[in-house]
Amino acid sequence: MKAFKDAGHLFRLASVFLVGGVLFLALRGFLVPRSFGQYGHYRGNAIKETAALPISYAGHQVCESCHADILEVKSKGVHKRVACEACHGPLAKHADDPASIQPAKLDTAVLCVRCHEANLAKPKSFPQVVSAEHSGGAPCDTCHQPHSPAIVAVAGASQ
Amino acid sequence: MNMTRRQLLILLPAAAVAWKSILAGTPEASPNYTMTEHWWGMLVDITKCIGCGSCVRACQMENQVTDGYFRTWVERYHVSDYDIENPKVDSPDGGKNGFPPAAVSDGKNFFVPKMCNHCADSPCTQVCPVGATFVSPDGVVLVDQKYCLGCRYCVQACPYGCRFVDPKKETAQKCTLCYHRITKGLTTACCENCPTGARQLADLKNPNDPIHEFLRTHAVQVLKPYLATRSKLFYNGLDGSVR
Fold this sequence. Notes:
- The complex is a heterodimer.
- Helices cover 48% and strands 0% of the residues of chain A.
- Chain A is mostly helical.
- Chain A folds into three domains: 7-51, no CATH class; 56-104, no CATH class; 106-159, no CATH class.
- In chain A, helix 3 (60-66) crosses helix 4.
- Chain A is elongated and about 110 Å long.
- By secondary structure, chain B is an alpha+beta fold.
- Chain B has a single domain (37-236), classed as Alpha-Beta Plaits, CATH 3.30.70.
- In chain B, a hairpin with a 6-residue loop joins strand 7 (164-165) and strand 8.
- Chain B starts with a helix and ends in a 7-residue tail after the last strand.
- Classes of the chains: A mainly alpha, B alpha+beta.
- At the A-B interface, helix 2 and helix 7 of A face helix 2, strand 2, strand 4, strand 5 and helix 5 of B.
């Protein structure tokens, strides 16, 4: 028993460690978010928070559910795969509340050249014009209808 | 209302499910979405890109990206026949408003859209000291905006320059692959608005996704393959000069 005669300081040290350990575990439980480590070394809820962000672009399927007439015209022209909001801009709010939120009128002089202004880096097969020479300053929709831009169709309709 | 016993028995479980979703409080953002069923990536077809900047504008609007910073951007390459190792690259305002006519007409010119490569072995997530950035179970590299300290380790670590620290929020920002859209069955804002179909969202775990056929039949490359980041941003028609 002589070896344990002065064991008091050992017990004191052990109790300090014990209290420290309990304090550490308590603090850890309090400070580490509950979803941390759910999928890996990160907060699992961060995934849900990212997924819950608001949408600005409704997607062309939503547009087409109301504007079937435009879809009909568009599906016959070369712009059939161009999504509505690529030109009209983000309109999820309009889709949620069509009556009070109306999209702005578009300016073809700005819009068309974004894609169709001639540039050496564009693929050769893509239709391009030098707008200043092509129309002599007239807006694009004088001749082309953006939803189905081929001129033949328009000329045929007006005859 | 007349209802047979059979109809009631069919209706009961449906009612139970509905009641459960009410009890759950805030409805989950995407109830029909199971993370383990997807493995997201993207296909970029350089031969189709016209440098219109629709993707850049769409990304900025969809994700409220601070002006002057980009989660996706378009670069224009000019490669001279006599110096193919040293291309001249420009990207005025990220290509948001298109590109001015080229100054020189010789050599080769093309556009390269860039964004987060959503690497499966991403260098950026490995360096985060607090576990604020990670690869999600469906293969999307995300940032926990509440956990990020803004220490910029990840900005340094990304070999593709796809991250930045937002000057207002002081947190790391990057492409989320429009996680709020793809989990609801929509495509990303950039893919939705690409007029030529140069960008296509790809789900590698979906056997019916056209990406599989495309990868089998085309010479597809990723950026900096020697870094072994297992990038999931696949480029068709990628020139060797692209960095």
